[in-house]
Amino acid sequence: MLESLWAGFVNVMHLTPLLACFAGVLMGTLVGILPGIGPSGTMALMLPFTFSLDPTSALIMLAGIYYGAQYGGSTTSILLNLPGEASSVMTAIEGYQMAKKGRGGAALTIAAVGSFIAGTVSIFGLIFLGPPLAKAALSFGPPEIFSIMVLGFVILSTISGGSTLKSGLMILVGLMVGTVGFDNISGVVRFTFGSTTAMDGIEFIPVVMGIFGIAEILWSLVGNEEEIKPASIRLRDLYPNREEISRSVAPVFRGSILGFLIGLIPGPSAVISTMVSYAAEKRLSKHGNFGQGAIEGIAGPESANNATSTGALIPLLVLGIPFAPPTAILLSGLMLQGIIPGPLLFTQHADIFWGLVASMYIGNVLLLIFNLPLVGVFASLLRIRPAYLNTLIISLCLIGAFSLSNRMFEMWIVVVFGIIGFLMQYFGYKGAPLVLGIVLGPMLETNFRRSLIMLANPAAFLERPITVTILLIATLIIILPFVLERIRKTGEKRA
Questions:
Q1: CA 159, CA 120: separation in Å to the nearest integer?
Q2: Is 416 in contact with 218 (CB distance < 8 Å)?
Q3: N or C: which end of the chain has fewer CB within 10 A?
Q4: The whole model's pTM is what?
Q5: Three-state DSSP class for 86?
Q6: CB pairs under 8 A, 24+ apart, for 473-477?
Q7: How much is the pLDDT for 419?
Q8: What is the pLDDT, as a whole number, of residue 149?
Q9: How far apart are CA 299 and CA 308, in angstroms?
Q10: Which UniProt keywords apply (predicted)?
Q11: Residue of 342, 353, 355, 351 lying closest to 315 (CA atoms)
């Protein structure tokens, strides 16, 4: 394992992979700072530009945007009480209070160092858990993969935030969109309504650009933008005192472990991990100053959201199943390079896996360098007029969509799904379930039909222990809330 890791470092210590890593983490930091498009939209924008890169460099750049965005969100959360990402909301609660007391620099340092430590811890988790899980996953057949996807959809609809029914509906819509075009097994053309341009299916990348890019811009246009005045931070203000350091050590390691483990489950794991970490630190804290600038409320959540981005790579790399929009885009990036993630990735493309691991450590070092001396520079980016920024993002969305196949069809997909995404936000629907439904829908259908062909009888699903166990867990997740609610109402009536 150490030899493989060393080979990964050797593989990425060349100009192209290093530049890709630098570009990825820099863009990720900027995306985390600037509210709006988010890491998913940015990764989708950059996908067309990775065509000319080798597979390792392409994956390094996209992954750098993903985990770099977790770093950047802390800057505006602490200085301006303006989370650039949903995963930075918990940081804003305590960070802004510290900034108002003149301890914003110390809060930024703890956030950056905590994220670096969390990234290191979670990278080792990826190293030690990834290959053994891949070996175990080799015994999985289409029925097991199908059951895991069903479980993922059930968990996603339950914890996506908001109404479970709305999340479930978005998943179904995503599944429907994913079936447009040629059937992978029979070759029959479906749901194209006579359009020859739709025979290849609806591309995932334009959909993401529309829902996470154009929709966010439209949403910002109907809101009331307040004038932002970034605070100035001097280098000597960045040093935390001894008490702040001692109170941060345990939360950083607890957040790292919690974030990595929560990253393994489907759904908005970065947001969930920060909430769980914040709640845990609030319960364990002996100081009782939460809500008034508790350093534990920054160290824990910031460590958790960075560790989550690494933990979320395990389902993608081991099973080839993305459980979050950013990892779904990573899957698209790999497939565009002709590489199918899954258990065989660790043997057939070991250089890519270990190169990614090595680049993540290099990226964490670069992020630590960026997020301390350049805090003031990054904060000043918020002075850019939204009109200029929005125009640039819309142009990149349309150019990137057109470059996929040089057709107007993809550009119209961006526009249509941008309007759909705006309407979804207006009516309280989440975009992540729809996006994952589009990505996983064809895989779910293909594995289900392969299972039926292989088993010849649907009842044979019940003869496979792993499949039965996973489907039983999914059923319990659906039924248990209703049972508990019924018990609660019965108890209230008796009382």
A1: 27
A2: no
A3: C
A4: 0.69
A5: helix
A6: 473/151, 474/147, 474/150, 474/151, 474/154, 474/155, 477/151, 477/154, 477/155, 477/158
A7: 92
A8: 79
A9: 14
A10: Membrane, Transmembrane, Transmembrane helix
A11: 342
- Return averaged pLDDT per consecutive 10 residues of the chain, 495 residues in all: 79 85 85 68 78 83 81 72 65 80 79 84 82 73 82 71 76 87 80 81 79 80 57 61 86 89 72 79 77 83 85 80 78 80 77 82 80 64 69 78 79 90 86 78 83 79 84 86 82 72
User: Which residue has tokens 């479930």?
Assistant: 168
Q: What is the secondary structure of 435-493 as a DSSP string? A: HHHHHHHHHHHHHHHHHHHHHSSGGGGGG-HHHHHHHHHHHHHHHHHHHHHHHHHHHHH
Burial class (CB in 10 A: 0-12, 13-18, 19+), 408: exposed
What count of Cα atoms within 13 Å lies in the side-chain half-sphere of residue 11? 23
Q: Are 340 and 334 contacting, i.e. CB atoms less than 8 angstroms apart?
A: yes
pLDDT at 360: 81
Q: Is 156 helix (H, G, I), strand (E, B) or coil?
A: helix
If we measure between CA atoms, which residue out of 430, 436, 418 comes closest to residue 166?
430
Q: How far is CA 180 from the centre of its chain?
A: 25
Q: In this structure, are residues 142 and 342 in contact, taking their beta carbons and an 8 Å threshold?
A: no
The length of the chain in residues reads: 495
3-class DSSP assignment, residue 190: strand
Three-state secondary structure call for residue 182: strand
Region at 191 (left for phi over 0; alpha for psi -120 to 50; beta for the rest): left
| Token pair in block for residue 60 | 């390094």
Structure tokens belonging to residue 275 = 């909430």
Cα distance between residue 295 and residue 332, in whole Å = 38
